[in-house]
Amino acid sequence: MDTLDMNLRRLCVLCVFCGLTFGQTSPVINNLPDAYTLAETTSTEFLLLSIDVTDADVNDDITCVFGVKTTPNNAANSDFRMKYDSTTSKWGIYTASGGVYSYDATATYVLDVECDDGTGNTAQDIYTVYIEENLVPVINNLPDTATLSTSKSAGYTVFHVDVTDPESNQVTLTMVCDPTGCPFEIFDSGQIQLKSDASTITEVGYDVTVTPRDPYGTGIPQTLSVLVTDINAVPQLTNLGNTVAVNENTVSDTPLETATCTDTDAGDPKSFTMVCEPSAGSTFFTVVPSSGVISTTSSIINYETLDAAMMTSFACTVTCSDGQDSSAATVTFDVVDVNEAPAFPQNAYTVAADEGAVNTLLQSFGYTIIDDDVNDTTTFTFDCGTDTGYFLISPAGVLSYSTEYDVDDPNFYPTSVSCTVTVTDSGNRTDTASLAITIYNINDNEPIFSGTPYNWFLSGYSTVGSMVNTATATDADLGTYGAITYSLDQSALLDEYFVIDQSGQVFVKTSITPLGQSVTVSFDVIATDGGSKSTSTTVELTITPTTTTSTTTTTDRYRTFFEDGRNIAWFTTACVLLLLTAVIITWMCFSFTEDGAGFISCRKCYGQPVRHNRNWGETHRGEKPETPPPPPTPPKPVNKPSPAGDLFQFWSTDVKS
Fold first, then answer.
1. Distance CA 312, CA 576 (A)
2. Which spans in 422-555 are helix H?
3. Which one-letter DSSP state was computed for residue 74?
4. Where are the beta strands (DSSP E) in 59-171?
5. DSSP label at 496?
6. Would you tell me how many other CB atoms lie within 10 Å of the CB of residue 372?
7. Quick one: pLDDT at residue 154?
8. Which residue did the predictor score with more confidence, 420 or 325?
9. In the chain, what is the greatest distance between 2 CA atoms, to the nearest angstrom?
């Protein structure tokens, strides 16, 4: 039972499906196949064909596309479109906006049109598009020949080109001249006109080739031959094209070159002009319009300045014109560097310096020299007449002393010197300037006392105001620095007993009684110059008990040996010691000999008597033989105890029996 029900159900479903399937119909394209001829100039989108497709099933949704049989296979994408028009509810075949159609590239398009009703039923047919070749414009009145007089002015119409286009497309015209540089121009209207005055034309004729074009193609070029009449002879420059070397600093109006211009038209006037590259060359060089003479201007030609700007060479183009035609040629001017003299920026200099030792610099820096030759070297010399030897000058021009310069000696070292300084460059070019040197006197010396040491004497009875003595100091400096003032330093005396005037004389200021008699005191005399340099010396003053002042108290001299009490003391002691020594020696000689005749013996070694007697019996020249004297009586022994432990025993006259 169940199996029967299942089969019945399947049968019913199959019947329903079969009923639905066999009830559908395919769509029908009613206006294909068809064809269309399309101009290759087409570039905009427009409708080629509205597809008439019907379907018995009115509820079916029809969709149309290009099928795979479309050729070329990219046409459906780039050149044609299938679009649905909601207004007409129809599908249409359109050209593509911006599409490019070329008869030469693709003359025929086969569009495979397929329409589907959405149920799998389709209709298919062919739409053919033929590309129509564009017809190019055509020149109707060329080739041809025209004549042109050199008397014609700019804007004159030499020829009118007649051109047509079969499709009435916009036509443009271009032209090419042989020889090039023709004085013509062409307009789209077909007119060929002069661009400039024909009087300047030098060619006998031109071939003008005109080419027509419309937006879709190029027509066949055609030629117009223009014959020029009444041609003016062009003046010719014959001698330029060379290079001329020009020294820097060349004076103005110096002729450098003369341009030569010839013209077969003898009556034509000639004039010259010139332009230079770089343009700065026109600042330095000029040409005389009537003669062609090229010369320098008043501007200074400085090689170093031009070299820094990298323009030491100028190419100058000279033009010769007869009023109708002209010719040009180039002459090159190369600026040459020459050695220029160095120069002091001023004519006179002054230098002021203190007197000083050898090699002392009078200047902290040398001279600034103007020399346009950047890499040139300079040296300096100077001439100060008879004073030249006092100075030296460095390579940089800095002065120094060649010796110790001391203006305190006016006979040898002047305080004012006039010199001439010379600077010389590597090319022996020179310049000079005057130099005034002023040497200042400085306080370079200290006061010096003469006659020192000062050992003075003063009576202990000298009263206030009495002159003690005179201190004398000198200073080698001249003027204020050499002026000396005196003062005393009596700090060791604990009071000011003396005073000194400015001549160096020392006087008693207060009573000297506290100093005592027969004593020597000391104090310092100070000499100060005008520059505050000072020197001191010590005075040894001996106060004597005399009532009158000896001449030695007023005369500077060295004290004698016995005038110094200290010498007397040690000399007396020395004399006493010497005398005592002599007495002891004498006593010893007589105490240890029997008769003082020299019998000396050592108590330990009992030496034999020593006699220093003459060898009797010897006959000396000029003498008679003598009889020897009898032997002396032996001395008596003297026994004296020797100090114990004495390394050297007392000498004794004891004789060993």
1. 110
2. none
3. T
4. 63-66, 80-85, 90-95, 108-116, 122-132, 138-139, 144-149, 157-160, 163-164
5. -
6. 18
7. 92
8. 420
9. 215
C-alpha 589/C-alpha 581 separation (Å) is 13
- pLDDT for the residue 649: 37
d(CA 38, CA 448): 134
- Higher per-residue pLDDT: 368 or 656: 368
Confidence bin at 593 (pLDDT 50/70/90): low
- With beta carbons less than 8 A apart as the criterion, state whether 101 and 129 touch: no
Q: How far is CA 572 from CA 422, 476, 560, 577, in A?
A: 79, 46, 16, 9
* pLDDT over 70, % of the chain: 83
Query: Among 70-74, 222-226, 380-384, 568-572, whose mean pLDDT is lowest?
Result: 568-572
Cα 296 to Cα 276: distance, rounded to the nearest angstrom: 13
Cα separation values, 356 from 310, 352, 379, 445, 501, Å: 51, 12, 25, 12, 33
Q: Residue 474 belongs to what H/E stretch?
A: strand 472-474
Name which of 41-55, 110-124, 408-422 the model is least confident about. Answer: 408-422
Say what the pLDDT of residue 323 is: 84
Give the whole-angstrom CA distance, residue 318 versus residue 256.
13
Helix/strand/coil for 283:
helix
d(CA 144, CA 654): 181
Q: Give yes or no for residue 559 having a pLDDT over 70.
A: no
Q: Which residues contact 649 (CB under 8 A, 6 or more apart)?
A: 602, 603, 604, 642
Q: Is the backbone peptide bond immediately before 278 cis, with ω within 30 degrees of 0?
A: yes
Is pLDDT above 70 for 81? yes
Taking CB atoms within 8 Å and a gap of at least 24, the contacts of 40-44 are 40/101, 40/102, 40/103, 40/131, 40/132, 40/133, 40/134, 40/216, 41/101, 41/134, 41/167, 41/169, 41/215, 41/216, 42/95, 42/99, 42/101, 43/97, 43/98, 43/99, 43/100, 44/95, 44/97
Whether 623 shows a pLDDT value over 70: the answer reads no
The whole-angstrom separation of Cα 41 and Cα 299 is 68
pTM of structure: 0.42
Decide if pLDDT at 12 tops 60.
Answer: no
Q: Which tokens in the block code for residue 172?
A: 């443009």
